[in-house]
C-alpha cells in the first residue's frame, strides 16, 4: 500500500466513496439516502456511523497519526489490517462476540463492520451505575476462548507460527503499549500527567525499585512470551453493552503475547471503576452497593475464564502442548489436570501483575480514563486514584503472594477505606 493512494474519509465524502461497494450498499440501500456521522472519541481513529434506508454500519478508518496527539506522532495505517485479521479470528474462536466484518480496504485502512445499537460503551455504563447480568460470563468466555484457541494449546503449530509472525508485525502499536504501559508511569516521561494531589505517592512509586523491576519483568513477558493472539487493548472502553448483551470491539492492538495481559488489563479497568465510584456518588455511600457489584464482576470474570479454559483444556487440547498422547492416552489424565492447574496458576500471576501495571498507567501516563477524569473535585479524585495506585503496586510486586480472587477483592475493599493523602 502506498500512503499516496490513501485519503481520509469525511461525512461529506463517505457516501460517494463507499457507495460503489456492493457489500455495503446491499446492507444499507441507496447511497444517495445515507446519512453519515463521525463519532470517534477514541485515541487513534476515525469512526463513522452510516445509516441507510435498510440498515446501518460502522466504518472505522485509521489515520496516519495518533488522533489524541496530532500529526506530530505518525502511526502506520497497517493497524487496520491487523484489526481486520483479529476480528476475523475472534469471530471464529468466540462466534458473535465481536462485530461481523462486511468489507476491508487495506489501501484506505478501513474496516466496515456491524453496528451494535442501542449499545453503549461499558466504561460509560459503569460510570452511570448500571448493572449488566451475564457480563462477566461473556467476558470470561471471550478471554478463555480467544486466548486458548489462538495458542499452541489448540492450533496446528504451523498456523500458530504463521499468525504469531503476522501479528508480531504490529510493531508501532506494540511500541505504544511497551512505552505507555510499562515504562512511562515509572519516570517523568514527556507525555505523562497526573492529578496534582498525588505528587507524594507518585514520587514514592517512582522511587520503588521493586516496582520498577516488576514492571520490567512484565514488559519482558509482554514482549517475549508469544503465547497467544491477544486483543491487546481489552479495557472497558473496548466493550459495548445493551442490557444483558455484551460485545468486544477494537482489537487493533492485537499481537502475540501472554494470556494474562488481556485478562489483567480488563480486571484493572473494573477495579479502577470500583475506586472511582465515590467520585460519582450523589451522596456519600450511595454507590457502595454498586461497587460491590463491580467486584462481583471481577470475581466472576476470572471464575468464568478458569471454568471455560478448563473445559477447553479437557476437550480441545489439540496443539503441540501437553498432548493427550503424553497424558490421557497413557492413563495419566490426572497429570493433564495437574498441568492445567499449574498453567492456570502461571496465568493468574501474570494477570495480577498486568492488572497492577495497567492501573498505574491509566493514572500516571498518557491516555487516562473517563471514570477519574470526570471527577471534578481534584481532592476527591486524588483520594480515589491513590487507592488504585496502592492496589496496583501490591498486585504488581506481590503477584505471587495472592492465592485467590477472594483475597484480592478483600484487599481491594480494605484499601478503599484508607486515606492516603
Ligand atoms: C496513543 S494511544 C493510547 C492508548 O489508546 C489505546 O486505546 C490504547 O489503550 C493506548 O495505550
Ligand atoms: Mg481502542
Written overview of the protein:
With 421 residues, the chain is α+β, with helices and mostly antiparallel strands. The mean pLDDT is 97. The strands form four sheets. A five-stranded antiparallel sheet has the order 1-2-3-7-6, sandwiched between helices. A three-stranded antiparallel sheet has the order 8-10-11. Strands 4-5 form a two-stranded antiparallel ribbon. It has 15 helices and twelve strands. It is globular. Helix 12 (333-364) packs antiparallel against helix 14 (378-397). A hairpin with a 2-residue loop joins strand 2 and strand 3. 5-S-methyl-5-thio-alpha-D-ribofuranose is lined by residues 43-44, 66, 68, 176-177, 180, 233, 366-367.
